[in-house]
Amino acid sequence: MSKQAFQDYYPEELSHCYGCGSNNADGHQLKSYWLDEKQGETIARFTPKAYHTAIPGFVYGGLIASLIDCHGTGSAAAAAYQAQGRVIGSAPALRFVTGALNVNFLAPTPMGVELILRGKITEVKERKVIVEITLSADDVVCVSGSVIAVKMPATMG
Ligand SMILES: CCCCCCCC(=O)SCCNC(=O)CCNC(=O)[C@H](O)C(C)(C)COP(=O)(O)OP(=O)(O)OC[C@H]1O[C@@H](n2cnc3c(N)ncnc32)[C@H](O)[C@@H]1OP(=O)(O)O
Questions:
Q1: Keywords, A to Z (predicted)?
Q2: 48 C-alpha to center of ligand 1: Å?
Q3: From the CB of residue 139, how many other CB atoms can be counted at a distance below 10 Å?
Q4: What interface predicted TM-score (ipTM) does this complex get?
Q5: Which of 24, 99, 117, 151 is most buried as measured by Cβ atoms within 10 A of its Cβ?
């Protein structure tokens, strides 16, 4: 696993994201890493707080969607650097936003355990990266999803 999170390379001015920005004290501050860079596999971990409850004992689906979203866009940025043979974080910055987010809730996600997000890069183009993601709790895949990440338009930053 890589030591530094992809989000740690985001510049200060782009680190306010509710899902993964280190400058957002009220956000989730999700951190994503390479699990196996050669295979295009990434990982993130998150333990929901009590207020992330949907029904007592189970995690709110909107939280799960945002974790998949940010693990996807972070993984996309890392994959884009990799595809260009560049060191992650080097200038000019490569940043991705969500073009499309698909989430399938396969089984209820229990509260009280660490959730594991695994990403697999399935397509890398100059302006678009697709990441397939699963979310597991206690080794059970509770959610699958995908993110179509598109290079951040100049109008956004
Ligand atoms: C910096 C870190 C930030 C972390 C971000 C965290 C995640 C977020 O919450 S981001 C905020 C939510 N997202 C947004 O607000 C984005 C708003 N949308 C936009 O700005 C634009 O529609 C944008 C950038 C997604 C696409 O722009 P557009 O000019 O249409 O892209 P374009 O260059 O034509 O398309 C590139 C590729 O993406 C595909 N694509 C674009 N949008 C979509 C979509 N909605 N669904 C599927 N595919 C899409 C195109 O088909 C094209 O694919 P291909 O190359 O295979 O033909």
A1: Apoptosis, Cell membrane, Cell projection, Cytoplasm, Fatty acid metabolism, Hydrolase, Lipid metabolism, Membrane, Transit peptide
A2: 28
A3: 7
A4: 0.97
A5: 117
